[in-house]
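lol so apparently i was supposed to do this last week
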Amino acid sequence: MITMLYAVLFYIATILLVVGVARRIWTYWNTPQPLKIVLTPAPTTRRGVVLRMVREVVLFETLFKSNKWIWLFGWMFHFGLLLVLLRHLRYFTQPIWWWVSLLQPIGIYAGFVMFAGLVGLLIRRIVVNRVRYISAPSDYLMLLLLLGIGFSGLMMKFVAHPDVVAIKAFFIGLMRFDIHPLPTDLPVLVHLGLVVTLMIIFPISKLMHAPGIFFAPSRTMVDNPREKRYVPASAKGQ
Amino acid sequence: MVELAIDNKISRTSVEDPLAPPCMTPGAMAGSKPYMAAPEHNIKLGFPGELPDDWKEKAIARMGYLAETNRAFKVYLDTCMKCGACTDKCHYYMGSGDPKNMPVARQDLLRGVYRRYFTFAGKYFPKLVGAVDLTKEVLDDWYSYYHQCSECRRCAVFCPIGIDTAEITMAARDILDHVGIGQKYSNEIIGKVMDVGNNLGLNPKALKATMADLEEDIEDETGVAVRIPVDEKGADILLITPSADFFAEPHIDGLIGYAKVFHEAGVSWTVSSYASEAANFGMFIGSEENMAVLCKRIQKAAIELGVKRIIFGECGHAWRVAYNFLNTLGGPFDFLDQDYPIPQHILEFTWGELQKGTLNIDKSRNDEYRLTYHDSCNVARASRMGDEPGGQFEIPRNVLKAVTNNYFEMPEGTTKEQTLCCGGGGGLLTDDLMDIRKKGASPRMHALKQVEEDHGVTHMVAICAICKTQFAKMMPEFGFERDSILSVHQLVSNALIMEGQVDEDDDEDDDMDDVPAMSGAPATGGSL
Ligand code: SF4
Ligand code: SF4
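anyway here it is w/ iron/sulfur cluster bound
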């Protein structure tokens, strides 16, 4: 029963996530940018722009310039999360890719780093009056949701020890449309329930900043309006 | 966590830190509103004269239209993660403490409404995501706070995902205009350019007479017949300069500087009475249509006069429009000489001449000044000079250092891409917004105070007509002389010894340059 419920939820959530994000990206791509609004100084070549974006996405360069605390917590969270996600590939690959196994030991520390980053962000949101002022309930809930996912995950690793082989069988089964029973330990159900929630709200929430950063014209445009006449109709996807 | 507490720092201590966060005072600036445009001024720009009965539907429809046709608008509204990195970066927030002047809070005034009518979460769970209905009160808030943003883009420099509040402000003003709520200052001025060709409403005859007077003045002073041609067909260069250069102080000294540089470089040039304005307030109100009308005037003037090049005078937002938008909205410019940048900035031209050595410079003629340079926001963050990124910082400084001996930088974090707005940009340079102008100017003024204390700086130099006017007004408010703001080309003009130049009278020359030190002395009167 619970197995079926979670299976259905995961199918629905996956469809919503993929379709939702794809539609958003499709819209962004197809919305024209009427004028050149690059924020200068900026690269004068497309290659330069790509490099700038890579630095932004990997190092959070701008955030470092604006606020060291948000940078620290934000970077801890995002890179902790990245490693944790990569580590989770072990539940979806058979046999496990060699580099995913290599990540196994680091992945656990990453879980703590991610959790600490989230706690830092939450404290900041509550303590700094400017950030408190701009926060809506959803901003806190989003952090609590992520904290819940992290906490239940760490619980499983260090306290509850559910049957990971069965969990893996469930997910591999899901991918092959062949449903295997899901262990019903509470941390497992909480963890997966929260993940499903996150997947569903992702495309309709501020989490869209992840793809959105690649569509912010101030950063993604090339600074060359004098060299090359900018004509918006031909600038789709730029 | 110590720093977390510091973030909440209660009050600005003293001169030391121009960037200190203020004490947060909700509602402090709620009463700040510019005068509204009269119906005929709105209609002239293609907007309804006044608030229609179905204003709500109209406003929402316009918002939807912008979301479909303007990627920046759509992406910025969707993706802000409320990280707070921008919250302490706006000079109007630093100066006023009103939380709605924090860039993200300013965006949220519009984002709340957008969410309510255009997003799933906002339609079904408005409270959860801070979505709000569009009401008369919201509209009032928009009018107030979107006229407390100078579209300076300082916040955008610090946003990790590149959100530019200036774009949201422009969109908000555009929506307001589409429901008949226009700002008097900007809309009237755009109308004037359409009628007469410049912000001042100076007609061709008056313009020619003014320029002839100026030619006389220069000849009296230097003995050299420097020309300021108007509507001269067949000239090589069309100079488009803010009309403030034709009459205001210290702008006009800049214009004299351009004329002398052109004279010494031996090029033929002209201003146009039809396109006698570099400023384009269409940008301030976020109206591409109106911006295009003014850009097209420049193209028309260039064709009619048969020029080969276009050069822009010292102006901030005008250079943004010229550099980024002119080619798109007023182009193509395939009839111009493609060997030169289209358009070119006067500082690029002068720097080129200085490098070529065509200008005979005596730096010591500027020795009574101890100078610092104010990067104008639109030049710094929305344009370039020269071929390299950052040329917009280097070239003006190179020129200044080539014509003066005493140059000092203001504190880091207040210059170049992080420069602080003068407080009067983006259509706020009007007397009815004096309070917010002064509050917005205060961070820059504190930075100036600092170099005054550290290096004995006496004057600040700018390359923007709005900055110059704003600072001339603000200097006395902060204990400086009103004429402690200078044009870059004014200093070029001072240091330049033209061929055949005979300084009319050394004593009088001294008098003219005898500018009192900035602080201590009583403020002088006069108006712009
Ligand atoms: S664009 Fe400038 S004035 Fe407007 S919110 Fe950003 S920092 Fe403030
Ligand atoms: S810095 Fe950017 S993402 Fe962060 S709150 Fe400000 S506008 Fe939003």
